[in-house]
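Handout, page 2. Input:
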Amino acid sequence: MKKKILFMLTSMNIGGVEKSFLSLLSTIPKEKYDITLLLLERKGGFLEYIPPGIKVEETTWFSRVKQIIMQPPQQTVRNLMYNKKILKIVNFINVYFISKFFNNRYLYYKNVLKDVPNNPVEYDIAISYQGPTDIIDYYIAKKVNAKRKISWVHFDVSKHRINEKLYKKLYQNYEKIFVVSNQGKDKLIEKVPTITNKTEVFMNIIPKDVIIEMSKMPIEFDNNYKGLRIVTVGRLSKEKGQDLAIKVLSRLRSEGYEVRWYCIGEGNDRGEYERLIQIYGLKEDFLLIGASPNPYPYIQQSDIYVQTSRHEGYCLTLAEAKCLLKPIVTTNFIGAFEQIQDGYNGFIAHCSEEEIYKKIQYLIENKNMRQRLRINLIKESFIQSEQLQRFF
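Output:
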């Protein structure tokens, strides 16, 4: 009989966590496992890439609690007053201020999600894949019946604020906590020391052969441009640091370097970045390409791959650029040092305009170093069978 596995994510938007999930799915033998994907909202550009045979379900309850979780508490009180739900107002205010006073979000989520029904299916394994995400970790911990529960942490918890009392309580319900980097694991244990013995590193799956094959897809990519092309892949947001990239390119261009920078990704900060591009006069040279489920042809046809993130968990796009043997400059977020040996297979810069500029300038001027980095990347092994075996 097949074992039943439940994975839970917020959606299937085009992003690193969702992409790593698809990579993991591709390795799971479908003849042995009955897999269900439960989404808070059934949407996103990666939905169509979910393999056949995977059950995709959407929560029936998230739309009812989404507003309460996302909006300021004052708005929740106003909405309840409008609907004349006086007792609910009193209860909500009490729970909100008690949880605030004791800095314990567990009490808050217990109240907000009290009417959410338990999942009717019994699973062998239930996985909160997008951790730490409060509502998903709570739902798997408290509303799902499973023999084993796993929380998969993809973010740097020293930057991604979590409520320690909430997670100390929730993690009691999980048998394993997987973290995608060694540094990330250390930071999580600092926050929640009680999980030391159940926390392991499980790095993201990198389907190297698939990435290489997808990188061969034909695209129109500024084919007539004769200068160097830099590519960055990531959501357009402050944490990904595209504002630093714009300033670095402005300096490179002002000093006469023939280079263009292409950003693959979409996000809430697009408007701000378009404004910066205008201010620095880079309309022709810093190009926001938009989101793409297949960024690999852009990476493949670039001369240098740059990751300007202020923080990451593991950074899947860095690993993908390594698969495609690109000279790399990355900032020193958590997990970067586990993928890049500074000066051997890439360069690591402090997260500042000056440092990023120096590393890129060095690579632009030193073609031999770019070639040496490629040669060193060829020597690396991407074998992950041992950790996959441990997972199964």
